Amino acid sequence: MRAIKRVAAIAASTAVLVGGMVFAGTSAQAATSCTSTGNGSLCLNSYGSVGFQISYQKNSGSTAHVDFHLVCSDGTWYGDDGDFYASVRAQAWTYIFAVGTNHGVCAGQLIDLTTGTTWQTNHISTP
Q1: I want to staple 108 with a disulfide (CB 3.0 to 4.6 A). Which of 26, 53, 54, 69 is the partner?
Q2: What are the chain's domains?
């Protein structure tokens, strides 16, 4: 059984739009970093002792062939369960990187496999 799963879910936390970037917060105030992709937002949230949750909210444009990665300051990087096609919809595309908390700070990446463009969040740590 895979400990890491991609899920499509509406964020259960509060979202605030600031300068074109979406910042999500929970009552625990987990670390969060977001960046604009031009037609959406890529966010990385700390996910307690489990690791990190990455999300991509696509707001406009055609369907994109993309992939998530997690890149950590200790030199490790992680892929998800594989590439996927992201279309405009009300729900964010999300994935949990169940890597624990001993990797230093990590950044989330979204790679457009058609154009080769890569977007990356700032590095954050787990609580």
Answers
A1: 54
A2: 6-120 (2.60.40)
- The pLDDT of residue 5 is 37
| Tokens (6 digits) for 120 | 């990356």
As a whole number of angstroms, the distance between CA 84 and CA 86 comes to 6
Q: Which amino acid is located at 79 in the chain?
A: G
> Are 54 and 11 contacting, i.e. CB atoms less than 8 angstroms apart?
no
Rounded to whole angstroms, how far apart are CA atoms 110 and 54? Answer: 9
Low-confidence ranges of the chain (pLDDT < 50): 1-28
Please report which helix (H) or strand (E) contains residue 86, including its range.
Answer: strand 84-86
Q: Quick one: which of 91, 108, 90 has its CA closest to 99?
A: 108
Kindly report the pTM of this predicted structure. 0.76
